[in-house]
Design brief:
It holds the Pfam family Arm-DNA-bind_3. Keywords: DNA integration, DNA recombination, DNA-binding. With about 400 residues, the protein is α+β, with helices and mostly antiparallel strands. It is about 50% helix and about 10% strand. β4 and β5 form a beta hairpin. α10 (about 250-260) packs antiparallel against α12 (about 300-315) and α10 (about 250-260) crosses α14 (about 355-365). The termini are far apart.
């Protein structure tokens, strides 16, 4: 029986005592099959005896089922076998399997922050992990985007998450797991191209330096009391911190970051072979740099004094400049940093903002943006332009040319 299938007509069809088939007049080869027990299913007929099950009517909308059938028919007329293609699709990995499998292998070899990136993908898109790569639709991601913004995630965070997911799907396309990325047309939220840069005011920098000195003095006083207690009981004393320039790694780390603009990870990875005290130069190797480009940072007097003094306190066989109590690379210093900011009365300031502070001070002192870009190791000039508003003098000189005219 031929019928102009609509969603409403499909729902109104009443089962008969025998199996009934309703052929769509809009798409030849597309039909609805209704069994006596009330089951309604869509099929695509490629020829005599050649049918492909499309889906149940209670689980698949008519328009979507018709579109699937149209795809099968198009493949058939192009000479492809849609049934073989469907069987191949059934073997596609889920998003979770893809992220933990081939994509994780690629990320480990090509991304410095692969662990953090993979963890963020799994966390942000947890609801999609069980879907096959071809089952995620653009509308699904649009809904996720709206929900994420409603939950209070910043547009910049949502933008980065979508970019990361798109990059993963682009890998799947490159590896011919899927023909096209189903989320390619999803737009990322618009963000301010020149976001506000957080840097320390003169008073905040003074308070931070005072907090660093106060922290060191507290540690020295605690060591003095501990040694006095040990001497009174005949125990061997601990090293006298008053004979050392620094009590631990925090102050030299902060001073180094303030004066070089190095990223936290670059500071953690820095080794003594990267330090040339004679020529007052620090080399950030390509493998430790986010941009994978080697860069050289000259030392100012404070940096030179900091590293020279810290070097005198370090053991001769120490490779890393800063090592934790196990003699290994630091992973984080959140607790000490949070305590320092609290002591200084500074809020809304991350360790990474020390890098912004370095760049901002340079720009406000008249250093040109390209030099700042080289010192920061930005591969994209746009990243450095966020500091341009701190150097308004070049714009002022430009408009003053009108007076001369």
């Amino acid at each position: 029986m031929k019928l102009a299938l609509t969603q409403q007509s499909v729902e109104k069809i009443v089962p008969d005592s025998a199996i009934k088939e309703y052929r769509d007049v809009r798409l030849k080869g597309f039909l609805l099959r209704v069994t006596p027990n009330g089951s309604k299913s869509y099929y695509c007929e490629l020829g005599r005896g050649q049918r492909i099950f499309v889906g149940r009517a209670d689980a698949l909308g008519l328009s979507e089922a018709r579109e699937v059938a149209r795809t099968y028919l198009a493949d058939h007329f192009k000479g492809d076998d849609p049934r073989a293609k469907r069987a191949a699709n059934a073997l596609l990995p889920t998003l979770g399997e893809f992220l933990l499998g081939p994509y994780a292998i690629w990320a480990r070899a090509n991304q410095k922050a692969h662990a953090k990136n993979l963890d963020r993908l799994e966390t942000a898109f947890r609801s999609f992990l069980g879907r096959r790569l071809d089952q995620l639709k653009a509308m699904d991601l649009e809904t996720w985007k709206d929900d994420a913004l409603q939950r209070g995630l910043s547009p910049e965070t949502v933008r980065r998450d979508i970019a990361s997911l798109k990059a993963a799907f682009n890998r799947a396309v490159d590896w011919e797991l899927i023909a096209v990325s189903p989320i390619a047309k999803v737009k990322r939220p618009k963000t301010d191209p020149t976001p506000k840069v957080r840097f320390l005011t003169d008073d905040e920098e003074r308070r931070l330096r005072v907090a660093l000195d106060d922290r060191e003095e507290r540690m020295r006083e605690e060591r003095d009391r501990a040694n006095e207690w040990r001497r009174s009981r005949g125990y061997p004393t601990l090293p006298d911190l008053r004979k050392l320039t620094y009590c631990d790694h925090i102050k030299p780390m902060v001073l180094l970051s303030l004066n070089t603009g190095m990223r936290r990870g670059e500071v953690f990875d820095l080794t003594w072979e990267h330090i040339d005290l004679a020529n007052q130069m620090i080399t950030v190797p390509a493998w430790a740099s986010k941009s994978s480009q080697t860069r050289h940072i000259p030392m100012n007097k404070e940096t030179l004094h900091c590293l020279s003094s810290w070097g005198e306190m370090s053991s001769a066989d120490q490779k890393l400049i800063f090592e934790n109590h196990l003699g290994e690379r630091f992973g984080q210093i959140k607790t000490a940093w949070a305590g320092l900011l609290k002591q200084a009365g500074i809020s809304n300031f991350r360790w990474h903002d020390l890098r912004h502070h370095f760049a901002s001070k340079l720009v406000m002192s008249g250093v040109d943006l390209n030099t700042v870009r080289e010192l920061l190791g930005h591969s994209d000039y746009k990243m450095t332009l966020r500091y341009a508003h701190l150097a308004p003098q070049h714009k002022r000189r430009a408009v003053e040319l009108l007076d001369q005219a």
